[in-house]
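Dear colleague,

Following up on yesterday's call, I've attached the two folding results inline so they're easy to grep. Please treat them as preliminary; we haven't cross-checked anything against experimental data yet. The first protein's sequence and structure tokens come first.
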Amino acid sequence: MRGWNIRGGSITIGSRPLVMGIVNTTPDSFSDGGKFDTADLAVAHAERLLDEGADILDVGGESSRPGAEGVSAAEELARVLPVVQKLAGRSGVVISVDTTKAVVAKACLEAGAAIINDISGAAFDGDMPATVRQFQAGLVIMHMQGTPRTMQQNPVYADVVGEVRDWLGDRLHQLLDAGLELSQIAVDPGIGFGKTTAHNLRLIRNLGTFSTLGCPVLLGVSRKRFIGEITGKPVDDRLAGSLAVACQAALTNSAHIIRVHDVGPTVGALKMLDAIANAVPAVE
């Protein structure tokens, strides 16, 4: 076991992946946009995810679906800050905020968030590394080819696994040079962010290679388009495919945090796998 240092303490990374529950406050996210777009609805949803066993809540106020337009920092803050403020008072709740904007990160960290989940790898806003360092917060850096608006416009790689790993490695070095500690950072290969279905499958199959970066690995595949392309299922019927990927990652010990919409089924599946793996073998 090892720890992931976040604001206010450390999270233990053990044999079973942690489950990060998604709390979207956006009107236009690909899966649940508009369902939780008021603070009260989002907080009620977050509390359900906690009851279902979420280890971390990831609150987001700007859609990153393919083709999505950006929103202003003021609009993003209006969506996420009241939710963070309401949740931060709950004992033992670990809050992550999904943002690329340092001003949003700062306000949410001041309100009690512990982790910043930045899909740009903390590269879109030059003030983000200093903000994370100031609060000694946890940071997830993700790889993305392009921006949400452009990322699915013919993504091309010569070696998707090697290129994504090298980019994350380079970004890690830049963040360490900016004063962050390796123990604060988790990496995410960015499934579906500037990747084709074939790229996504190669990354998932070779997910273990990202552990060589020395950080926890976060995997986010929940309900994504490539699952629909493979299974033929619409976005609200992709639980089986999402669970299959989560279980494969758990069995291969290649993901340490799994970001999902469907917390209860994911927690149950991971507990079952863990119980089987740790069962006392029969005496011969």
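Below is the second protein, in the same order (sequence, then structure):
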Amino acid sequence: MTNTNSDLKQAVLDVLDEIIHPNTSKGLIKSQRIQGLSIQEGGQVGFILEVDNGPSPEADSLQKHVEEALSKIDGVSKVTIVLTSHSETPQPPKASGATHRMHKGDNTASKDARGPSKPSSSTAQRTAIPGVNAMIAVASAKGGVGKSSVTVNLAIACAQLGLKVGILDTDVYGPSIPTMLGTSEVQPEQNKEGKLFPIEAHGLKTMSIGYLVDSDAPMIWRGPVVVSAINQMMSDVEWGHIDVLFVDTPPGTGDIQLSLTQRAPLSGAVIVSTPQEIALADVRRGVAMFKKTHTPVFGIIENMAWFEDPVSKNRTHIFGEGGARKTAEALEIPFLGELPIVPQIREDADSGTPAAITAGPVQDSFRAIAEKIIASLEAPQGKAPPKIVFE
């Protein structure tokens, strides 16, 4: 952060702490009502503001007061507030001004946090996202297997095949999609109804909590709060027309995954794993979760399958060999392909330019897997997808 931004951040903090929360005798900073304060280049200010008891005239008044106070600071060009609230009963969002509302304590989300007692195959409780034809969860169950980089490059590959593609980053605790796409310094605009426009990059439409708050700030949210926030990132975004929306999920089989499988209109899921047994054990749990919630599993991708020495061309299977393929066979689900350890993928992810953009072996590998996933989407429900042979 530059000195100018540092000075601006301090000015914003000072003003925020001069504003007293209606239910406390302290300023918004001292009462810990502000999270994830972000000061972007050009004076764009974003943060999370916590209020009590859901939408109310008092919350609206506080939001307007905060916006007006911050807008008077020299150097502030825009204020984006993510408004969260504790609410005993779920209430529909009614965004206004520059505020994007996320409500804590949704009763359904609270049940999700305890786990579904009776999973249902019915989609009646699932809310379709206007304009989105298909929605695919990319899951890993185990952290550190390269799921987010696989998500981004698969999305690029599908776009190269002629589809309109989006990415929803639901990893609230560690959003990495903005960095991988080179959009971490961008904030979304809103339409007059208060819906956010997705950030576009490399032919993709994307949304992430990382666009709204400082990605380095810790998100101290409990499960139901996260679930409510993600639900609104799905419903309060003006996606337009999307053929496939990839959902980058956080590791594990917890609140977020259960909420997505129960309440989002998922067309299916793709599992990413390394070949080693410690990762594959979690894969089996992840597949079981999707099956219990009646979400089709399109297949398993083996990432970091081997490293090839650039000089000798000898392959070293650092994490074991063929583990994901064998697991897929044992679980009777498709094996989608192997991805080697390639420095280019890591380098390009760090620089914000996905490796699949550049023609070569990396692009070919992701495109082959993307074609299999598209075939799964097009296959009749309940039937195996047609076999595709890549020459």
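For the second protein, one point worth flagging: Residues 132-378 form a domain with the Rossmann fold fold (CATH 3.40.50.300).

Best wishes,
A.L.
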